[in-house]
Amino acid sequence: MIRILFKYLVMFLSLVLVQVLIFNQVQFGGFFNPYVYILFVILLPLSTPRYLVLILAFVLGFIIDIFSNSLGVHSAATVFIAYMRLLVIRIISNREDDKSDYPGLHQNKLIWFVSYVAFMVLLHHLLLFYLEVYTFANFLTTLFRVILSSLFSIIVIVLSQFLVFRD
User: Fold this and answer.
1) Is the model's pLDDT at 99 over the cut of 60?
2) Is the CATH number 1.10.1760 carried by domain 2-163?
3) DSSP string, the chain
4) Separation CA 102–CA 80 (nearest Å)
5) pTM score, two decimals?
């Protein structure tokens, strides 16, 4: 139990540091904004109580908001995907035995994991970018940013499963 808590604490801190120090500095023309810190919410065990997932998502988003100076948009988007997580898993899973308690790549099939990550990242980025601009005036430009940033984030998250998160 202590080992698992330590693992998630290290994952939390690592993802915050990587997001703040590296990925917040990466912006190609304002269209590619990778947000990989949501991997923490994505990889939480399915048996984690929903209230704890929501609290952890809020704390994670709040910390990113502090470092990004973004007035709560990361908190809102992260809590939203934490709330939608079980619904997304139910949508992409055919049977109950398809899902492992740990929704990582090595415990599930590649197609399942990529679908899960794609849904979660798209939901997060849609809410995040539209809350950030707070208007539908440039709807297609913002949608283009959502799609490009989502693709980049999905690629980085899936690659991280091969390189870093082995168990």
Assistant:
1) no
2) yes
3) -HHHHHHHHHHHHHHHHHHHHTGGG--BTTTB----TTHHHHHS-TTS-HHHHHHHHHHHHHHHHHHHT-TTHHHHHHHHHHHHHHHHHHHH-SSGGG--SS-STTTS-HHHHHHHHHHHHHHHHHHHHHHHH--STTHHHHHHHHHHHHHHHHHHHHHHHHHT---
4) 20
5) 0.89
